[in-house]
Amino acid sequence: MAAASIIEELEEVISRGTSDRRVETLRRVTDLFLNDADRYTEAQIELFDDVIMRLSTAMEKAVRQQLAERLAPVMSAPKTVIRSLAQDDEIDVARPILMLSAQLDDKTLAGIARTKSQEHMLAIAGRKTIGEKVTDVLVERGDARVALSVASNDGARFSSEGYGALVERAKGDDTLAECIGLRQDIPPYLFRVILATARENVRKRLIASTTAREKAQLAGAIAGVADRIAVGTATSARDLTAIHRSIVVMSNRGELGEVQLKAYAEAGKTDETVCALSVLCGVPLDMVERLFIGERPDPILILARSAGLSWPTLRAVLKTRPGAAGTSAAGLDETRESYDKLTANTALRVLRFWQVRESSAKAS
């Protein structure tokens, strides 16, 4: 039947038609749209949008579910109808739209994830691609199933803050930790956190999964990761008590800040740099010392971002490390890129974890 004749029936069906007649008309209109979906103009699609929306309102679940299943894969599906179905409280109706429809933007998906059920979030977590705004909400609100599903999705993209929160959730969850550690896009400093917190069997599988090149880069971190990340047993070979005490006094007088830290670093005063960084970050001196001697600069980035240090100051600090590993032009460029991506919230979250581990280790 031609489009015009179907549209002419619409008002009568909506106002006086029986339920069965409304369902039949909806089916016919949907068929008409799907037969030439790729050829309709924007104005024509808007007309179908209005017609299908009016017909499907208050339809029973089975009818809405069938409509959702038919429209979900269609690239040019009517937007208003798609959004309505995606927000349906019945997950059997919403699921195909949430998983498949290309008509849902990140703002709409994030809004649904923020207000609907765990089942709705689980469907969103299964999409082919998921933007950072959406994954932020899934990681924050989702249950264990949602977190694991989105972490397993290679098409999901995470903000620095979202990635940090996901890693935080993985503590005590071997399956999630391994899933996150196997992601190709995990930042190196968070991979080290995963290694530090995972059980031995998970850690071994993650290390085994890395390429030869990655193993070479991570060798130092892997060899003593638990020791260097806040739980080491090595003691300092130098007594920095006097230097540390004098810097604490400076801080109490309001004389210690980023400028003074940078001055220490640029003068090559490693001991003063370590002590000043300890005071500015509010972390134990022995922890800073251990982090300072690591193969990679990543832990220092965590300290610097938590203290709000600028890149020039961080660069000067890195050059005072023993051997100054990673301070070539290429190494510094890579480090700066990592630092720019690291958010203060993520740094503070990781730092809190280190502090808890440090306190637990000392207590035991």
Protein model, in words:
The chain is mostly helical. The protein has a domain of 134 residues. Helix content is 71%, strand content 0%. It contains 24 helices and no strands. α5 packs across α6 and α8 packs parallel to α10. It is elongated. 39% of the residues are buried. About 5% of the residues have low confidence.
Keyword list:
single chain, 364 residues, 71% helix, elongated, mainly alpha, 24 helices
Low-confidence stretches: 219-237
The total of helices stands at 24
Shape: elongated
Strand content: under 5%
Ends distance: 80 Å
Biggest sheet statistics: none
Reading the helices and strands in chain order gives: HHHHHHHHHHHHHHHHHHHHHHHH
Radius of gyration, rounded?
Answer: 28 Å
Mean pLDDT: 82
**What's the β-strand tally?**
0
Helical residue percent? over 70%
Query: Helix/strand/pairing class, anyone?
Result: mainly alpha
